[in-house]
Amino acid sequence: MSKTVDVVTRNNVRVLGNPDGRPMIFAHGFGCSQETWRRVVPAFLDEYRVVLFDHVGAGGSDLSAYDPGKYDSLDGYASDVIDIVTELGLDDVVFVGHSVSGMIGVLAVNERPDLFGELVLVGPSPRYVDDVGYTGGFTQPDIESLLDSLDANYLGWSSVMAPVIMGNADRPELGEELTASFCTIDPAIARHFARVTFLSDNRRDLARVTVPTLILQSEQDVISPTVVGEFVHASIPGSTLVMLSATGHIPNLSAADHVIDAIKSYLR
Amino acid sequence: MTSPTLNDASLYDAAPCGLVTTSLDGTIVQVNATFSAWSGFAVDELIGRSFVDLLEVGSRMFFETRHFPVLRLQGEVQAVSLTLERADGSPLATLANSSLSGDTIHLAIFDATERTEFERELVRARRMSEASESRVRVLQAAAGAFGSSETEAELALALASSVRTAFAATSTAVWMTDENGALQLLAGVSPLDDIGGVVDLEVRHIESVSAARELSPALAAAMENSRTASLSVYPVAAADGRGGVVATFFSRERSMDEAYGNLQSALSQQAGEVLVRIRLQQQLRHLALHDKLTGLANRDLFQYRLGAALDAGEPLALFFIDLDGFKAVNDGYDHSAGDAVLREVARRITATADADDVIARFGGDEFVVLCSCPDAVAAELAESLGAALREPFDAAPDAVVSASIGVAVYAPGDGERVTSDELLSLADDAMYEAKGAGKNRAVLRTI
């Protein structure tokens, strides 16, 4: 069972920027790959040692490494982040996580607080489904509706949205070609990842965060509404909440300059 | 975008597809009459609205998490399935092409009601066939893995692994009932240290920590501490009444519906049947290698263990024990008394010898003991065995029973290796020498 894992290949890890700089890891959210950071990353290359990676199932990751049991909760993804940090021998890491990767970062930091120096959460949500006394923005049927939408786009006529891949777990080398198109994700894994992302409840983990945390919240975000950003802020002791004058769930693409400025002034 | 001329405007409005232009942030800046008619909103109701607001929630989530980044990175996206929510709340299935030009996004939207309906049926059928196929695959793989298991531990491992794969579980654990009726963890990992009260022979679905709290606050606390969000417990029923339990643990809340229960039941039932088969085989193997009367090893098993001990190259002492006066027991009492004496002899030898020693009954009143011990220890053991066996027997109080013991002591050296037969016959000879010298004694021979 315990075969040695090539973390760099598994997660398509790329290390850029200043080799002597402080390490800064960017983690992508549900629906895309490390490319979602392409407008933000250049601003940090001079000063930071920038680490980009793909979650298993996305981008150029090794699809054969997808263990559904491991990745049935965000803890599995968090353990991959810790693997990357330890494999590269990093510490005092700035972890920048978008969307679901915000919570993945929270779990990684809680597991190994010694490795991380700062946490930046872009549009995080600890729970997407409403609960008694909590507004997440969605209901259980909403999540089923998303899964239907994924099916319609990945399995039906419009499967152009599902880039050529189709999970071929026996041929990880296929990952090479995939980087040619954008935001590649394996449809079957995307479906499972959607469930794990949108049906997880990590509210209790927020209070345990001990590293300084910046929360970036778009003013208009239908996936993680501002009330959720405020909940995250209230739940992480000593955290800082910055509202971005941005629309949409991916300010790192739609308002990259605001994201860059907010991160830089927080780290300064 | 330049304003359309009059002719262009009529073409634009009459186009047999919805045309929508938005700013980069998705705010609608222009729509054509077709889109307005399809959506059920007047043009001026649409201008200034956010396009994603017009989408049904699943499409909205897809649009935001997937369509948007691909469009921004790639510049265009074609034939995306999006469901609009019309003014009257009814859905409209569409296919949309989008392109990015400068600061605007152009969308061409096609009515795909029929196609989408048809596709939904296809997808539904595909999902159903995939679900049943995966169920069959899981059961087939499990049948193979269970079937090739030769021990309870192997079966437990196969069950734990099959269940983990079938349900994408964080971990699974399998307990089996031991001879004393206690459940023993045989395979997998239980994230909960104390699972008492939950792991019993009953089906349990614990879908959340709050559900656990109603059952037992201690269980809820243990789940929280181990990051377990939900779990299920299924009994592995065995016809011999000594079944087991398989517990499945998840790090997030999982709903355990009928399909879940059916597959769990099918797997644990399959495992239960194999468990009975394995136990029967173990019983048969035990019967084939043990003496029925005393439960000691028989000659076959002893020969095997002796060969293995010789291969290991350790110093050995082989004791050949023949009872003196046993014939008188059989003559003076009935056969059941003889049997009782033999069982008591087996018990006394077992109590006297070391737990690691191999003890066998070769038949009649002949017993053998194999000890991995040096000669001094062997001499002591011979004395103790002799003393133990000359004590009176309750089943035949008037009979005078003792033992003639021949001991072959072997210390492996550089010379030629001794064989099992040589060692046995040396011990046999020594035993006859003890008999000849007046019985009730031990004779040691060294080789």
The ordered string of helix (H) and strand (E) elements of chain A is HEEEHEHEHHHHEHEHH
How much of the residues of chain A is beta strand, in percent?
15-25%
What is the terminal separation of chain B in angstroms?
107 Å
Terminal CA distance of chain A = 45 Å
Radius of gyration of chain B: 40 Å
Helical content of chain B stands at: 40-55%
Q: What kind of sheet is the major sheet of chain B?
A: 5 strands, antiparallel
Strand order of the largest sheet of chain B: 2-1-5-4-3
Overall pLDDT level of chain A: 89
Number of helices of chain A: 10
Total domains of chain A, how many?
1
* Molecular shape of chain A: globular
Most residues in contact, chain pair and counts: A-B, 55 and 54 residues
Which sequence of strands runs across the widest sheet of chain A?
A: 1-3-2-4-5-6-7
Average pLDDT metric of chain B: 90
Low-confidence stretches of chain A: 158-180
Structural class of chain B: alpha+beta
Question: Per the principal axes of the C-alpha atoms, what is the gross shape of chain B?
Answer: rod-shaped
Topology, number of strands of chain B: 15
Helix content of chain A: 25-40%
